[in-house]
Design a protein that fits this description.
Elements: H1 7-18, H2 32-35, E1 43-48, E2 53-57, E3 63-64, H3 69-81, H4 102-106, H5 117-130, H6 134-146, H7 155-163, H8 166-177, H9 185-196, E4 199-200, H10 202-209, E5 218-220, E6 223-225, H11 227-240, H12 246-252, E7 257-259, E8 264-269, E9 273-278, H13 289-302
Antiparallel strand pairs: 1-2, 1-9, 3-4, 5-6, 7-8, 8-9
The structure holds glutamic acid.
Length: 307
């Protein structure tokens, strides 16, 4: 029996209370397609495990999910490879920036976790080895798990990521030099950038992340995950999902989740709800300012978090 909580009222109250932060932070501008987004936007969608859904403001506006895509890629790779996936990538928080080269060099090209760029590029390589058309299958999976067949890649963002992706190319080269990438480097990078370019709304993301609330095992598009695997995926989100701010996010919000530099954050309260929030202005660590505030207030006011 679900507790009686007026989620709609809570979401509306949160929006009112976080408006004061609407000019704080700066949107990602490393590619023109993200720099052009109107930063004065905010959307939020919460979906309960019983199927009820609550939204506020721009919950249906699509945005670039960027690194949130790394969760979908990991789910597919865990489904395909089981525990052996951890021979290719670690599961420890990095404590460094998501695109840092220093740690990667020091640790001989073995990425700390699948949510930093190096780890996600290795996961992209795994998917390419296992699937005949990884690009199409990835999109099919995302469409299936979110129940929205219209979700697609943003070609301009993908092209732009590639054009300006010098650091990611350096990471991929370092990985390759240590024998951590099997497939053609350019093709792996192109697939990685395409995954980052997927556009979804908060409603799409809340629906997709409901699968990770671990109410039951799932099988989307022929990629099954057991409850035990979903639990482990949540553990990685909890410890590694927020760049170099996973500890702060755990402390303030207390939910497993993943953020992206497009300003989106998707999180789950296992057994209870999935929530997605989006606002483009980021704090210095790369997490959405209003997004983090909104989730902090959500778990405080509902008294629902994993702690
Ligand atoms: N496309 C971005 C990059 O690889 C992803 C950034 C992110 O959302 O963390 O630099």
């Amino acid at each position: 029996m679900l507790k009686e909580i007026d989620y709609q009222q809570i979401l509306e109250g949160i929006y009112q209370d976080i408006k004061v932060y609407s000019t704080e932070g700066k949107q990602a501008d490393y590619i023109p397609a993200l720099a052009r987004v109107n930063p004065e936007q905010f959307g939020m969608c919460l979906r309960l495990t019983n199927g009820r859904e609550f939204t506020v403001e721009d919950a249906d506006t699509r945005f670039s999910i960027q690194s949130i895509s790394k969760v979908f890629a990991l789910a597919m790779a865990m489904s395909l490879k089981g525990e052996s996936i951890w021979e290719r990538v670690g599961k420890e928080p990095s404590g460094t920036a998501f695109n840092s080269l220093v740690q990667l060099e020091f640790e001989k090209g073995f990425p700390r976790n699948p949510f930093i760029n190096a780890g996600a590029i290795v996961i992209a390589d795994v998917l390419m080895s296992e699937l005949t058309d990884a690009g199409t299958t990835f999109l099919d999976f995302v469409r299936d798990i979110s129940g929205n067949k219209t979700i697609t890649y943003d070609r301009e963002v993908a092209r732009s990521e590639r054009e300006y992706g010098f650091l990611n190319a350096a990471i991929a080269n370092l990985l390759k030099s240590h024998g951590r990438i099997v497939n053609d480097l350019e093709e792996v990078l192109a697939f990685y950038f395409r995954m980052c370019s997927v556009t979804m709304s908060c409603r799409d993301l809340a629906r997709a992340f409901l699968a990770f609330t671990n109410v039951e095992p799932f099988n989307y598009c022929g990629f099954p995950l057991t409850s035990s695997q979903i639990k482990r995926l949540n553990a990685v989100m909890q410890t590694c999902g927020f760049y170099d701010e996973a500890g702060e996010f755990s402390y303030l919000v207390g939910l497993p989740g993943k953020s992206g530099v497009g300003g989106g954050i998707a999180a789950v309260c296992p057994g209870r709800y999935a929530v997605a929030v989006w606002s483009p202005r980021l704090n210095p660590k790369g997490n959405s300012v209003m997004g983090m505030k909104a989730l902090e207030l959500l778990t405080t006011r509902t008294e629902e978090s994993i702690f």
